[in-house]
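Methods: example folding runs. The two proteins below were folded one after another, and each record is reproduced exactly as written to the output file, sequence line first and C-alpha cell line second.
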Amino acid sequence: GHIRMLPKIMALDTRLTSKTDSSKVIFAVVYDSNRKSDAQFIAEGINRVHHEKVSNIPFTAIALSVNEVTEREDIAFVYTIQKCSSKSLKKVAAWAIENSVPTFSYDVADLEYGILGSIAFERSTVIYINKKTLKEGKFHFDGTLYQIARLIE
C-alpha cells in the first residue's frame, strides 16, 4: 500500500522538480540504527513498482540513514520506516520543515514529532496531514491532496 501511494503523494508537490539538480528526483527511505536492509528492501520495491517514474517525473528511491539525509540538499521526499526513535524523527522533521521537504511516516503517531503525513489503511485508505507542520514547512501541494487528506492538529 505505502509503496504504491507515497510516490503519488510526492508527485503532488508542485515544487517537486525544483528540488533536484539531476535528471531524477530523489525519494529517501530513511531508517534509524541498524534497519538499513529494511529500508533498502522498501526502496527497491518502490523503484520496481513504479519503474522509477511517477506522473511522468523520473525518480529514484534510495535508503539513507537519519544522519545522511539531513546532510543532503537534493532530497525531494522522505519516508521514515517503522521503529525510528522519537529523537531521530524530531531531527528529520526539523530538517525537513526548514527545507520544505515533505516527510511521511509509517506510523500516524509520528506526526506529533513534526512529521508531515502518514497513510493509514483502515476500512478505506486515509492520508493524515499534520496541520502545524504543513504551515511551518511552507509546503505547496496540488489541491488534490487537500481534498483527500485529513488534516489533524
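Second run, written to the same file directly after the first:
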Amino acid sequence: MQRILIQAILNRIAAELPQFKTVDLFNDQFNKADAGKSNPIRFPALFVSFPEGAQYADLSAGLQETEDLTVRFYISQGMTNETVGKTILEVMDLKQVVYSKFQGYGSDYIKTFHRINEEADEERTSYYVFIQDYSTAVIDISKYIQEGETVTLTLDLTEE
C-alpha cells in the first residue's frame, strides 16, 4: 500500500482521535492476543487494513491511480461482564467519531473518503468490534515525468 496513504491516515488519527490507545495496521491482532501470541491490546483500539489490495490504472506523465481502494477500520473495545451495556454504547460513540473524522476526508494525492459499509464483527468473544469500510483512491506520483525533463523511451522491437 502507498506510504503516503498510510501516513495520512495515521496522522489524521493522531491529530483527531487521541482517545484510541492502540493504533496499528491490522494483522489479526484479536486472534493473536487471545492465543497469547502478542502483547495485550490496549483499548479502545483502532486498526487499519486494505482488504482488497490495490488495483492501479495508468494515467499520463508516469502517474498511476488506484481504482476504488477500500480502507477498513476495525474499531474495538474490550468486553467484560461488568461493562457489557456501557461498553457497547462506548463503541457506538467511537465508530461515530471515526466516521465524523474520515467521511469526506481527503489530502494531497488522496481522493475523498466515502463510507461504503459498516458491520459488527460477530466472531469476537472478548471484544466489541465494528468494521467501517471507506472508498478512496490514491495517485502515485513517484514516477512522475516533469514537463521539460528528458526521458529515454525504448521500443520492444524484434527482428523479422
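Comment on the second run: The helical segments are 3-16, 29-34, 84-102.
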